[in-house]
Design brief:
Chain B: This is Sodium:proton antiporter. The complex is a heterodimer of chains A (about 600) and B (about 160). Chain A has about 600 residues and is mainly alpha-helical. Helix content of chain A is about 75%, strand content about 0%. Classes of the chains: A mainly alpha (about 600), B mainly alpha (about 160).
Chain lengths: ~600, ~160
């Protein structure tokens, strides 16, 4: 069965999580398994990406437990999900290697690695599933483990942040369940492809598409909460500050993007199929726009708020983690902006460019922001603080780390030849093509704000003369290097206070205060950002394919089930479901005998 | 349960009778679960209520000493929480393994099969469903995780 590759990443991640649980008492083996599992996950995703590319239809479908859609759960790998999976795989591998050094023995005893891989399981499932309820389940898997990981530091701040994060997301989950229940009651199906098919021809199935609009708006709230878009952003700074650096990297780089993916998948592939004329003041939505005529302006307002207010918030932050967290809010605005423009644009070409822009920006932000969080984590590991007033002069004591940070920061700003340049270019391109001067102005203002806060971070933390803590850490690192390894195995180099008295030694003899493995992880992401920027074509092609796949509802429905795409179920409506399940059950029992 | 207020004889006797009944019901639900109301989850919850009853009436230490430590294989482990976490991880592995096992027969993940054995004396027809392995995994996950929570929170 060739389509087994579809479920391979999911099984690899789940298997790794279970193995990490079983090897709790052998920390060394657990660390090795965790990294090997993350490596195997990358391989699994790579094989899947290749398989999807070679498939003539560009879509691979896997029927879990051999039950056909629309009743069974199907997993679908198409260019859109594989692009996001590839991002997830890269970030999660780097963060897994980083975790081995960063999370100490005590952290490992608390099942860090098992939780980490369970979070990856949730991400993978959410990206692959073709069933709305199953999407909810994977969101929960992802969130359950992230709750614990946010609370991981177990101090009062982390507990408060985790409580806030958990309560908000539980509220979100309740709303999501409500919306999904409503969608099931209205359309009579949970399968995304089947839902798209029914919405495309509501009269044939006896569906009233009007309630679906409200329900999908409710669902949108949940996805935007996960993505941290402006009115739902308040959990972001605290949670990102509290979580360990590699977890923050995955939360900002991958988990957020699952929210973006869900918006693209459900709104552009599924709900866009419904022929419903929505008229809002100032928006002339024809029937060809459907639901998206409503979601376009909504997304636009939220994207604008995120980009501007997030950027303003980032300028004023006292610490690096807070700055990067607000920057995440601002950058998610840049991802949502082309989606908003694409939603209101009727021309298919503009729509494709808009979604491609959002996807390229997601990849850029996923890599760059993970890099920045990892770099700040490495600096904190060495210095013991991320407050801008405590930092300064990092270029002198940690040159490689600073270089990596600079590349990530420049990619965020959008300097050629980095990936970020093309990402920003595509956002502007979308606005210009759609003839949306307002969107262009917002993007421009957001870009200027990005430059402002990135410059502030760089000037305060990396340039200038080293602050006293930096100085102390540098001295400690040098004396430490004389008599042994600077950082004990898995331990934190919190030696800043011990060696405060000897500050004043010659800094030039110190190569780097940061842990080499942590720096190496950061550097690998920087190299990737440069490489993807210089060789941008493959990424652009992948994003365009993904955008085309997201917009081709018909092919999506056909891939999931040739039968349901071909013949319309005669009895129609939401009432036929139970009967069909009963029939399938009878058939299954008959086979067994 | 504080030291000065011992549970009454009635409560202790009732518990002693009820706990095996709960355990039996749990096992019945577990075995029937794949195509009748029941299943690994509810069986696990029921089993945990039996344990919780014992904890409340006989106290944490008695249960640990008499049940967990002296009961054969589990006695090898250092504490009840350890064996509960092990049950949790083992259950997860079992459920996962039962799903992957299906892939060895070239059918998708989690595909289940069922075999009917006829003509068993007295009992008649017996049904062997592969879903039972998955249910058993779920059962251990539920029992392991709930008992960990009860043991840890109860100790506080």
């Amino acid at each position: 069965m060739t389509s087994t590759v579809v479920i391979a990443p999911l099984l690899v991640a789940l298997g790794t999580a279970i193995l990490a649980l079983l090897t709790r008492r052998v920390p060394r083996l657990q660390r090795a398994l965790s990294v090997a599992g993350a490596g195997a996950y990358v391989v699994g995703v790579a094989v899947l990406v290749r398989a999807v590319r070679l498939d003539p239809d560009g879509r691979l479908v896997y029927r879990v437990s051999n039950w056909d859609g629309p009743f069974g759960i199907v997993l679908i790998a198409d260019p859109l999900s594989t692009l996001m999976l590839a991002l997830a795989a890269v970030v999660s591998l780097v963060a897994a290697v980083y975790s081995v050094r960063f999370v100490g023995r005590e952290g490992q005893r608390l099942s860090y690695h098992a939780l980490y891989h369970l979070m990856v399981v949730g991400v993978t499932g959410a990206l692959l599933t073709g069933d709305v309820f199953n999407l909810f389940v994977w969101f929960e898997v992802m969130l359950m483990s992230s709750y614990v990981l946010v609370a991981f530091a177990s101090d009062s701040d982390a507990t408060r942040a985790a409580l806030q994060y958990a309560v908000l997301n539980l509220l979100g989950s309740a709303v999501m369940l409500l919306a999904i229940g409503g969608l099931y009651a209205t359309t009579g199906t949970l399968n995304m492809a089947d839902m798209a098919r029914r919405l495309a021809d509501p009269t044939a199935f006896g569906i009233d598409p009007a309630p679906v609009l409200g329900l999908s708006a409710l669902l949108l709230v949940v996805f935007l909460l996960k993505a941290g878009v402006m009115p739902f952003q308040f959990w972001v700074p605290d949670a990102y500050r509290a979580a360990p650096a590699p977890v923050t990297a995955v939360l900002a780089g991958v988990v957020k993007k699952v929210g973006v993916y869900a918006v693209v998948r459900l709104y552009f592939t599924v709900f866009a199929a419904a022929p419903l004329t929505v008229s809002l003041p100032g928006i002339s939505g024809g029937p060809e726009l459907g639901f998206l005529a409503f979601f376009g302006p909504v997304l636009f307002l939220m994207a604008t708020a995120s980009a501007i207010l997030g950027g303003l918030g980032a300028i004023d932050q006292p610490d690096m983690e807070g700055l990067l967290a607000y920057s995440s809010i601002a950058q998610i605005g840049f991802i949502m902006l082309p989606l908003a423009v694409a939603a209101t644009a009727a021309a298919p070409a503009v729509r494709t460019v808009g979604i491609a822009a959002a996807l390229v920006y997601s990849v850029n932000h996923g890599l760059a922001k993970s890099l920045l969080f990892l770099a700040v984590g490495a600096a904190e590991d060495a210095i013991g603080s991320t407050r801008l007033s405590d930092l300064g002069g990092l270029t002198e004591v940690a040159p490689v780390l600073s270089g990596a940070f600079l590349i990530g920061a420049l990619s965020l700003v959008g300097i050629p030849p980095l990936t970020g340049f093309f990402a920003k270019l595509l956002v502007f391109d979308t606005a210009v093509r759609a003839g949306a001067p307002l969107a262009l102005a917002v993007a421009l203002a957001g870009a200027i704000l990005t430059i402002a806060y990135v410059t502030r971070a760089w000037n305060n933390a990396f340039w200038g003369s080293p602050g006293s803590r930096v100085h102390a850490a540098a001295t400690a690192a040098r004396t430490g290097r004389d008599d042994g390894p600077a950082v004990a195995d898995g331990g934190h180099a919190d030696a800043a206070d011990d060696a405060h008295g000897t500050a004043g030694d010659d800094l030039a003899t110190v190569a780097s205060i940061a842990d080499p493995v942590l720096v190496g992880c950061t550097l690998s992401l920087a190299v990737l950002l440069v490489a993807l920027g210089i060789g941008f074509d493959p990424l652009y092609a992948a994003a365009t394919d993904a955008a085309a796949a997201a917009l081709d509802t018909e092919a999506y429905v056909r891939a999931v089930d040739p039968a349901i795409a071909g013949d319309a179920i005669a009895d129609g409506g939401g009432t036929g479901g139970d009967q069909d399940v009963a029939e399938q059950l009878r058939a299954l029992r008959g086979d067994g005998r | 349960m504080s030291e000065d207020r011992e549970p009454t004889v009635i409560v202790k006797t009732v518990t002693r009778t009820v706990v095996p009944l709960i355990a039996l019901t749990a096992i019945a639900l577990l075995i029937k679960g794949h195509n009748l109301p029941g299943g690994g989850f509810i069986a696990g919850v029921l089993t945990t209520t039996a344990f919780a009853l014992l904890y409340v009436i006989y106290g944490l230490d008695t249960v640990r000493r008499d049940l967990v430590t002296n009961a054969g294989g589990v006695g090898l482990l250092s504490g009840p929480t350890q064996s509960y976490t092990r049950a949790f991880a083992g259950g997860l592995a079992l459920a996962f393994g039962s799903g992957v096992a299906a892939m060895l027969f070239d059918v998708p993940f989690l595909t289940q099969a069922v075999v009917f054995v006829d003509g068993i004396p007295l009992y008649g027809e017996l049904e062997f469903a592969s879903a039972l392995a998955f249910d058993l995994g779920v059962y251990f996950v539920v029992v392991g995780s709930l008992l960990t929570i009860i043991a840890v929170v109860g100790k506080e």
